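Purpose: get a first structural picture of the assembly so the mutagenesis plan has something to point at.
Setup: two entries, given in the order below. No constraints added.
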Amino acid sequence: MPNMYEAMTDAELDAAIAELEAEADKVRALNLKLDMARGKPSPEQTALSKPMLDLLTSETDLTDEGVAVDNYGLPDGIPSARKLAAQILGVDAANVIVNGSSSLNLMHDTVCHAFLHGIGGEKPWSQQGEVKFLCPAPGYDRHFTVTQSFGIKNIPVPMTADGPDMDVVREYVENDPAVKGIWCVPMYANPTGITYSDETVRAFAALKPAAPDFRVFWDNAYCVHTFAEEGDTLLNIFDALAEAGADNLVYEFGSTAKVTFPSSGIAFMTASPADMAEIRSAFSVMRVGPEKIGQLAHVKFLRDLDGVHEHMKKHAAVVGPRFALVQEKLSAGLAETGVATWTEPRGGYFVSFDGPEGSAKAIVALMAELGVKLTGAGATWPYGEDPKDTNIRIAPTFPTLEELGQALDVFVIAVKLVSARLAKASR
Amino acid sequence: MPNMYEAMTDAELDAAIAELEAEADKVRALNLKLDMARGKPSPEQTALSKPMLDLLTSETDLTDEGVAVDNYGLPDGIPSARKLAAQILGVDAANVIVNGSSSLNLMHDTVCHAFLHGIGGEKPWSQQGEVKFLCPAPGYDRHFTVTQSFGIKNIPVPMTADGPDMDVVREYVENDPAVKGIWCVPMYANPTGITYSDETVRAFAALKPAAPDFRVFWDNAYCVHTFAEEGDTLLNIFDALAEAGADNLVYEFGSTAKVTFPSSGIAFMTASPADMAEIRSAFSVMRVGPEKIGQLAHVKFLRDLDGVHEHMKKHAAVVGPRFALVQEKLSAGLAETGVATWTEPRGGYFVSFDGPEGSAKAIVALMAELGVKLTGAGATWPYGEDPKDTNIRIAPTFPTLEELGQALDVFVIAVKLVSARLAKASR
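Result (structure tokens, whole complex):
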């Protein structure tokens, strides 16, 4: 589809801009205060987990498989929570640690451990000169910030509809021993919403890293977060590793931040037995014990993987209509213009939107002016630098359906106006 | 009091050893399995906080001063929890962060931040060559392990009945810019149980560090943990700093680990506004949000400082008799022998015991053989090296009174036997 504004005559384009500016002025007069910025569950969603608060009382037996959960001990988490997390990730509970409420914090501490102490018997990353991380982009800004904070060089890798471009990944990983890791959200990726294909997952498992202390950071944050009738399926990376005869290659992370309560969920990680032994030892210095009472509440509430899926259906009923509205509004408003493309995920928290080259910053700025907060343009790229300035992350879960509809109407106007102005500026 | 065994004739000493060995054999035959190793509340104590679990239900309004606690946000903790923590520490809530359940983890991350990124506008510690920390000893092993894990050189400083020997501290801090910190447990110190005198606290506030990025790590872990009728009082370090016109000198930490539930309490820290601004910025990369639902439960349960003191009285009723039993058993068994000294704290979790030179490792080993686990000898010193091998940390809270009595009876036999053998070996 050609860019509608580029195809217009000068007079038509001026008229279109004038009309869009008039529409924008009307919006400006409404003094809206809307937020489509962060992947945050709506109050309707967090309310779904309130019954969890009834499950522990002063009468509850605070033991798990015979061990006290209300005292120090069990640094790997309570046995039943480790089993639940193992089911969610499809791995052996013996290799699972459940600790804290934030998987990002587990990732940070894992990078920190490798940086300061080294992994796999190698020297600390901090003593190996320049160290690099691959960052499939668009991706998750807070991943990139973690490695950046250690002075690690973040390198963008193109994302495709099947996951990161594995030719590029392989080229880096197998030839450059300074490449120590890659950030992945393999299912309902942040922000594209795509799920890595089986071929991509197998390509990860088949990597022969130049660095023995290279690891894939597999942030399976949205592994149970399907909202469509038919969800995606993700090949289990540890099954793929076994198939490939590989080991000590992947750290996998997950949490219930968007299953139960953001910031008050349970976070967990898994890896090979050898990698987990190192992590255990590192955590024994960094942390005391995990919040085991919260873990017990989670197990009583979610029970097992079936319980999780059942609960996630309730989230889907809240979230699904919001994502449908995004598709409806963007299609109705922009399909004919030829200025934009966007993803159509079946799960997760985001839609990834691409406007014309050089438009994203201007759209986000105009939206802010019109009273709608979006994720900062460029945030989805390492160092906040989107090379073509096209990508915007849409986070539709937090607003009400009505607010979301309003915000998307404004978004359509903003995209059109910025696109039309760009077309004019290029003449 | 002279060492009784040293004063004996050879024949008397041989008879004493034979008698003590017979007593030890009788104990060995009992196959005891007792534990006086870690500062762990007893089940009676953790049960005191179970009513907290009734205070949040599915009907509870999950907001705090109008802000949602069941979603992302409030990285400093919920306002009411910050106020509660501020009351406990006697500081301004504006300078308090409540995050996670482990103050040790907050300390680790603060050291990590200074090490990797630098504090007070100075270069990262990691780029300043050899960096040193002062470790008043005997002290808390897990403090020492944190700095050791960064390759920081731990330097023991003598402890007195009034706190660390401040002449030694001043000498190091004011002359050596490589000295970046000191580990302190200012109230009911781990393990001596003493509380720093006002003079000591003022001496800390008056320090003029050679390094602008020197900080006192003030771990006020036991600030409300009095079990005696009359407790100790600790001069507020921030009041002393204000008096001295000093600033940016102290990080203070605390938690409810031994108020409510170990590993499921709330942890907090405070410092000057400038220091806290740095910590906030560091935590915004390291962590997502704190467990705010647990914070709300804590506020509902403990309410305010009066509520905390009221609750701690219940702990005192459980813990007090255990500490009294330690004094009773040690006095009855060892006062006449002249081989040992020990502290008599009015709060906290430990009694610090010193036997003859070269006895501690042997006593702990013999105790293990007789079925009683003690904290490893040397653990209270940096690198586990107690230069005179005298110090043993007694942790009397976890066993029942009956078990504790048994364990102490065995301890008296072990101390006597090891002391008698040492006396013989030195002839």
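The first helix of chain A runs from residue 4 to 7.
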